[in-house]
Automatic annotation (TrEMBL):
Ranges for domain RCK N-terminal: 415-532
Taxonomic lineage from the root: Bacteria, Pseudomonadati, Pseudomonadota, Gammaproteobacteria, Pseudomonadales
UniProt cross-references to InterPro entries, sorted A to Z: Cation/H_exchanger_TM, K/H_exchanger, Na+/solute_symporter_sf, NAD(P)-bd_dom_sf, RCK_N
Sequence intervals crossing the membrane: 59-77, 86-109, 115-135, 147-171, 183-205, 226-259, 279-297, 304-323, 335-360, 367-386
Any one Gene Ontology molecular-function term assigned to this protein's record: antiporter activity
Similarity annotation: Belongs to the monovalent cation:proton antiporter 2 (CPA2) transporter (TC 2.A.37) family.
Protein name: Inner membrane protein ybaL
Alphabetized UniProt keyword annotations: Antiport, Ion transport, Membrane, Transmembrane, Transmembrane helix, Transport
Compartments in which it is found: Membrane
Gene Ontology CC annotation, any one: membrane
Principal location: membrane
Highest taxon of the lineage: Bacteria
Length: 560
């Protein structure tokens, strides 16, 4: 076989990540841990196969670009503003406390100031992936606590973007190499100037040009071209901004995502056309794992333990007290503290930068990685612990229940109702019609923005993935009459149907399909009726032809 390093690295990365990710899922731990361990296996510190390091790091860079593009795409000022009173001061103070704790630890280990700063900052930011998943699993996204945690995370994201921008400029003075005779101010001003120029170009030009291009491409009707356009925008802006303005790939990608965020249409489209993002984000975690030397767990157990304690207790205790100080109830403070007691992707990006700028010793990266893996593993246990604690408190003081109650998502009071899963192209039409007829309706929708908008329109909405039985129960499955599954993904629809069927033998389940095989699968999963979109379209078209009155041919003039 000829030499194919890129192919080998990709294949090994995907296969290992898949196997260990699936294993982690099975063991009910975060798949992130699986991906990181896949990296450790493919890395140079464990026996057996060793992937190409340089190539993996470059693939990881692509992962970072797509990840940051995703952060930009989901960046919602509205989410932040709705809880700004607590989220902004809370996050700022918590980042400060965690950074100081990390710096203190670094000082003990004799690292220079710059290294301590990077290390502290890396410990101070939580992983979006882990946080959202934890909130989703516990149906907390839709509560006040969940909203505060998400707003808090947005502030952390912003602080990290700022750090990624400023760190390279400050590296000279932080490492004390004395290269920057112009002082600290000049490089910062220069960087901020470049960033400002980049932002101005994006706002003045990009904001108009990008949606315009996307609209034109959408009009061609080629999905392939559309996906390509989104990728070209993400990578093109990230790379172009790095070359032209000297800003990092990450910042460029973040802005590219934000620009698409401007219009609902391009946001949705970009979101749907980027399964590639997930794939490369996974490879990013694999490549981070490759750098990890597990020997640190044996050689330096104390620093590992201290790092772990800063992440899991230092950060969360600080967050707990801040939230309490702002007068929020105990359960809110506990949930937010538990949500933030972990670190992930941003920390990896940051330590990667720190090591490459020669600020952070490699040991720092290993500590952050060990701390991340351990804290992500422990995170679900923290949630279980606070749930127990809350239950016990409530038993002791039942009157306190009121403050918990207020924080629950709006209750569903409908009965004998239709539950509609998915309010998209199909769901929207169904919902309009049922509302018109006055049929009681509860919508389950997993996109938060969309759910909020529907609620504003007066609909009863449960936010979450309907494949989760808890979510179905929130929609008052017990007394529903119909379940209308109007989502395009057949596997997921089957999962929803079988969950609902096992809970309710007498429910009328109607599902949507696109293929014959899907129809069969959905029927086996418990649907009473499956409507296949394509069949209905064909029928509509044929019917139209059949209904057209027969046209009488004009008599042809007789030819001579
Ligand atoms: P469309 O593809 O236009 O038919 O839209 C489908 C809608 O269903 C989108 O708004 C999705 O957010 C939503 N959706 C997809 N899967 C689920 C799910 N498992 N639970 C709840 N909503 C979903």
């Amino acid at each position: 076989m000829h030499h194919t390093p890129l192919l080998t690295t990709l294949a090994a990365g995907f296969v290992l990540a898949f196997v260990l990710g699936a294993l982690a899922q099975r063991l009910r731990i975060s798949p992130l841990v699986g991906y990181l361990l896949a990296g450790v296996l493919a890395g140079p510190f464990t026996p057996g196969y060793v992937a190409d390091q340089a190539l993996s790091q470059e693939i990881a860079e692509l992962g970072v670009i797509l990840l940051m593009f995703g952060v930009g795409l989901h960046f919602s000022l509205k989410d932040l503003l709705s809880v700004k009173a607590i989220a902004i001061p809370g996050a700022v103070v918590q980042i400060g406390v965690a950074t100081l704790l990390g710096m203190g630890l670094a000082w003990f280990m004799g690292w220079p100031f710059g290294g301590g700063l990077v290390f502290g900052l890396a410990l101070s930011v939580a992983s979006t992936v882990v946080l959202l998943r934890a909130l989703e699993q516990r149906q907390l996204i839709d509560t006040q606590r969940g909203r505060i945690a998400i707003g808090w995370l947005i502030v952390e994201d912003l602080a990290m973007v700022l750090t990624l921008v400023l760190l390279p400029a400050l590296a000279g003075s932080l490492s004390g190499s004395g290269e920057t005779s112009g002082g600290v101010l000049l490089p910062i001003l220069l960087t901020l100037g470049k960033v400002a120029a980049f932002v101005a170009v994006m706002i003045l030009g990009g904001r108009r040009l990008v949606p315009w291009v996307l609209e034109r491409i959408a009009a061609t009707g080629s999905r392939e071209l559309f996906t390509l356009a989104v990728l070209a925008i993400a990578l093109g802006i990230a790379y172009g901004s790095a070359v032209l303005f000297g800003v990092s790939f990450a910042l460029g990608a973040f802005f590219a995502g934000m620009i698409l965020n401007e219009s609902e249409l391009s946001h949705e489209a970009a979101e749907n056309s980027l399964p590639l993002r997930d794939a490369f984000a996974v490879l990013f975690f694999v490549s981070v794992g490759m750098l990890f030397n597990p020997a640190i767990l044996i050689h330096e157990p104390l620093p590992v333990l201290a790092t772990f304690l800063v992440i899991v207790f230092g950060k969360s205790i600080a967050a707990y007290f801040i939230v309490r100080m702002f007068g929020h109830p105990n359960n809110t403070a506990l949930t937010i503290a538990a949500s933030l007691a972990q670190i992930g992707e941003f920390s990896f990006i940051l330590v990667g930068l720190g090591v490459s700028l020669h600020l952070l010793p490699e040991q720092g990266r290993d500590l952050v990685l060990a701390g991340a893996i351990l804290s992500i593993l422990v995170n679900p246990l923290l949630f279980i612990a606070i749930e127990r604690l809350q239950a016990r408190r409530e038993e002791a003081q039942p009157t306190q229940g009121a403050s918990v109650e207020e924080d629950l998502p709006p209750p569903v009071r409908e009965h004998d109702h239709a539950i509609l899963v998915g309010h998209g192209r199909v769901g929207e039409l169904i919902s309009a019609r049922l509302q018109g007829e006055g049929t009681p309706l509860v919508v389950i929708e997993d996109k938060r923005e969309k759910a909020a908008e529907l609620r504003e329109r007066g609909l009863s909405v449960v936010v979450g993935n309907a494949a989760n039985l808890d979510v179905l129960n929130q929609a008052n499955l017990a007394s529903a009459r119909w379940l209308l599954i109007a989502i395009p993904n057949g596997f997921e629809a089957g999962q929803i149907a079988s969950q609902a069927r096992s809970a309710r033998a007498d429910l009328e389940i109607i599902a949507r399909a696109h293929f014959d095989a899907e129809v069969e699968y959905l029927e086996q999963s418990g649907a009473n009726l499956v409507i296949m979109g394509e069949r209905e379209i064909a029928q509509g078209m044929a019917q139209r032809v059949e209904e057209t009155p027969v046209r009488h041919e004009p008599e042809m003039p007789q030819s001579a």
